[in-house]
């Protein structure tokens, strides 16, 4: 998280969600998708891009050869005493390789193990763990996967053996034809995101705190180590991803004019 | 670690260690201290400071009210295939508060639990965990301490509740009169070190990768995100600490002219 402050965007999102439920009950599920595309309470425009927040139930993006599931959407809610509650999004990529993207906070250990078990995945089945950046709400459970290839920020390791990588030089780490790890710096100096192509929703970008949430235009800069660099990373993401999974909110769709 | 390359300083250190043992056997222990102070193979000079590497057996710095113990000295050794083996130093501060500084890599889980148990410390006894920075070889086992106050880089949290802190603004986080967490950026943008005053060795600074090792003058810049900022942090450390515990090597004494 690394925040001095964190504004709660969950209040507006909850109101929009309630409105969405009302429309769903009135008009049926087929209308919900259209509402999502146009509902101003769930849509923000930034330059040529619209971001449309998906619902709490749209956490799975099936595909061939790879599917993406959000095991836990991250959140961030400010308290009046100056503290805030926060957790990082945890995502699972399944297909020819099994990839966990972020591990949540240290308090997520049991949740994470149970969530994987619910999907028939044991910790030993995870072949690659990606920590999008080294904040405690994203890398709290690395030790559940000691035998996995591990990418945390720019570091690539297997056990205590670290491999050279060119992530720090801006080069992509290619897992295979469909999955890659992209340097997306700004929130910290060493952020990465995981890109999965070919899902039913198109290209999915699991972005860590490159995006805090679907509607973070007035918050992300406060949490950024380098806003200029992060803005470049964000624009690249918006140019290429169809769905972005942010670090502290629900997935959102990207519409390009 | 976050290194594109890592030179091994352990070969020279081992040779010096062997020479030290020979002198010890010939002249007795009182001479060893003098040899350590002057042996050029264990001493480097940088400006007005000499750094003197301590021996592998000098890992405990008792004191009142606080003692410092290195549970595992970090290391870094390069391989000919371009990979390198590395682990971060793990340190324990005991006294009125029990503080763990860095948790090692994800593969250190069992070692860490056993090492604490050997000292009569259970995971639940740890009141504060400090991750000096968010690299995988330092924050691999955060989830062993879900009930501890946790400082990882600039983030201060208890469970999923994050507290405001001024570490990002350069202010010290004061634990009590003798223990404090200092912002020491450079290796990453959000590094911290733990300072313990009043030990038998004087002021001990547990520095993470602010210093890679006692003799890192030709290596630390390759691993630094901001060498200018890190140089400032290093100079401050050398001005105030009597012993520095680096992130990837044995503790070293600082002598000021």
From TrEMBL, chains A, B:
Q: Where does the record place the Metallo-beta-lactamase domain?
A: 87-248
Q: Which transformation does this protein catalyse, written as a reaction? A: a ribonucleotidyl-ribonucleotide-RNA + H2O = a 3'-end ribonucleotide-RNA + a 5'-end 5'-phospho-ribonucleoside-RNA + H(+)
What SUPFAM superfamilies would the database entry show? Metallo-hydrolase/oxidoreductase (SSF56281)
Pfam families linked: Lactamase_B
Q: Which InterPro entries match?
A: MBLAC1, Metallo-B-lactamas, RibonucZ/Hydroxyglut_hydro
A GO CC term assigned to this protein in UniProt: cytosol
Q: Which SMART domains match?
A: Lactamase_B (SM00849)
Where in or outside the cell is it found? Cytoplasm, Cytosol
Q: Look up the signal peptide feature and give its range.
A: none
Q: What does this protein do?
A: Endoribonuclease that catalyzes the hydrolysis of histone-coding pre-mRNA 3'-end. Involved in histone pre-mRNA processing during the S-phase of the cell cycle, which is required for entering/progressing through S-phase. Cleaves histone pre-mRNA at a major and a minor cleavage site after the 5'-ACCCA-3' and the 5'-ACCCACA-3' sequence, respectively, and located downstream of the stem-loop. May require the presence of the HDE element located at the histone pre-RNA 3'-end to avoid non-specific cleavage.
Q: How does it assemble?
A: Homodimer.
Family per record: Belongs to the metallo-beta-lactamase superfamily. Glyoxalase II family.
Name of this chain's protein: Metallo-beta-lactamase domain-containing protein 1
């Amino acid at each position: 998280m690394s925040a001095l402050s964190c504004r709660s965007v969950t209040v507006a999102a909850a109101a929009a969600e309630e409105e969405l439920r009302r429309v769903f009950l009135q008009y049926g599920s087929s209308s919900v998708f259209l509402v999502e595309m146009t509902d101003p309470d769930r849509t923000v425009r930034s330059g040529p891009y619209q971001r449309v927040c998906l619902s709490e139930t749209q956490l799975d993006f099936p595909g061939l050869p790879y599917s993406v599931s959000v095991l836990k959407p991250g959140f961030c809610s400010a308290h009046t005493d100056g503290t805030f509650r926060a957790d990082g999004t945890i995502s699972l990529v399944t297909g020819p390789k099994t990839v966990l993207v972020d591990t949540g906070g240290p308090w997520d250990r049991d949740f994470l193990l149970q969530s994987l078990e619910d999907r028939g995945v044991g910790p030993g089945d995870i072949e690659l763990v990606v920590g999008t950046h080294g904040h405690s709400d994203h890398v709290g459970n690395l030790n559940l996967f000691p035998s996995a290839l591990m990418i945390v920020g720019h570091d690539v390791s297997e056990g205590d053996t670290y491999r050279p990588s060119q992530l720090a030089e801006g080069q992509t780490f290619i897992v295979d034809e469909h999955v890659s790890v992209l340097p997306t710096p700004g929130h910290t100096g060493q952020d990465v995101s995981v890109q999965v192509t070919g899902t039913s929703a198109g290209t999915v970008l699991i972005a860590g705190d490159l995006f805090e949430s679907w509607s973070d235009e007035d918050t992300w800069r406060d949490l950024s180590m380098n806003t200029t660099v992060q803005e470049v990373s964000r624009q690249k993401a918006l140019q290429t991803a169809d769905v972005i999974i942010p670090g502290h909110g629900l997935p959102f769709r990207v519409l390009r004019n």
